[in-house]
Structure formats: C-alpha cells, structure tokens
Specification:
The chain is an all-alpha fold. It has helices spanning 7-19, 24-36, 38-63, 69-82, 88-100, 102-149, 153-177. It has a domain at 1-63. The protein is built from 7 helices and no strands. α2 crosses α3 (38-63) and α4 runs parallel beside α6. The mean pLDDT is 81. The structure holds zinc ion (ZN).
C-alpha cells in the first residue's frame, strides 16, 4: 500500500487530517503520503502551526478579551470613532467590536460618559465666566456711579485752599480797615 493519494488530494485533506475528522483509513493514507512526500509534510507542518496559532488566539480571547489584537485596534481607534474621525468602514468595524465584546462596549460607554462630563464642565466654565463677566461689569457700573458722587480729593483740597485764602484776605482787610 503506497501513495494511494495524490499531492492535491492530500493538500485538500490536510485540514481534516489535522482536526482528526477523517476516517481511520483515510487518516492512514494521508499519514503514509506525508511520510514519503517532503513537500506535503512541509505544507502539513505549516498548516498545523497556523491552526495552533489561531487556537491560541481564540483561547486568549476567551481568557482575556483585553489581550486581543482586535481589542487593541478598537482601543487605538476609539477616540477617533467618538470624534467622528473614522471613515465608514472603520466605524462599522468599531461598532461591530463594541457589539461583540462587552469590554469594548463598556469602554465606548465610558468614553461617551467622559465626553459628556467634559462637555458639561466646559459649559459650566463658560457660564461661570459669563456670570463673572456680568458681575464685573455690574461692579464697574456701580463704581462709575459712586465716582460721580464722591468728589475727587484734588477738588476738595482746592476748595479748602480757596476758603483758607478768602479767610486770610478777609482777616487782613478787617485788620487794615476797621
Ligand atoms: Zn505530496
């Protein structure tokens, strides 16, 4: 019993062979072909390696949804998504991840909440500034009013000086003529 399968047939069966879903007879044929054909053996090893990697990634995703490549992409695009800076394709991708990954969804909600908070605090600051502005304007108006009522100290001094001079002159005139 030797090489009952062609290379094409073996290549087509490799996936099933690795998953161990072939009949025992076919499994035996593939195994025999692989032992005698280095080219198919190479393909087999590559495919097995690739499938192991995929399985590792899937296991990793189950253990820690944060550690996946998809989630990393999501994280790096999240703020751009929230700011509407992504193209349609990219934002659909983000939406899909947010739907399928609960942690990603939580992140999206968090960033929206944060944005809302930021926005409301910005509004608050703006309003406070507005209040401060009207307050200071009112103060200025009040000061202008009081400034009008309170005479400038210079005028007060000048008036006192004139009164003093008048008194002296009147005194001198009184001494000289009476
Ligand atoms: Zn072969």
């Amino acid at each position: 019993m030797h090489n009952q399968l062609t290379c094409e047939q073996v290549t087509a069966l490799l996936n099933f062979y690795i998953e161990d879903s072939l009949s025992s007879k076919l499994t035996e044929y593939v195994r025999q072909h692989l032992e005698s054909c280095p080219a198919c053996m190479e393909k087999y090893l590559q495919m097995k390696n690739m499938l192991n990697k995929i399985m590792d990634i899937e296991n990793e995703e189950i253990e820690n949804p944060y550690a996946t490549k998809q989630y990393e992409d999501f994280k790096s695009n999240l703020s751009a998504y929230v700011d509407n800076e992504l193209n349609n394709f990219e934002s659909i991708k983000i939406k899909k991840i947010a739907i399928s990954n609960p942690l990603a969804r939580q992140d999206l909600e968090n960033i929206y909440t944060f944005k809302k908070l930021l926005h409301s605090s910005f509004e608050k600051t703006k309003n406070e500034l507005k209040n401060d502005y009207s307050k200071s304007t009112l103060c200025q108006l009040r000061h202008e009013n009081t400034d009008e009522k309170i005479l400038d100290p210079f005028y007060k001094l000048t008036a006192a000086f004139f009164i003093m001079i008048t008194c002296i002159v009147a005194g001198v005139i009184k001494i000289l003529y009476f």
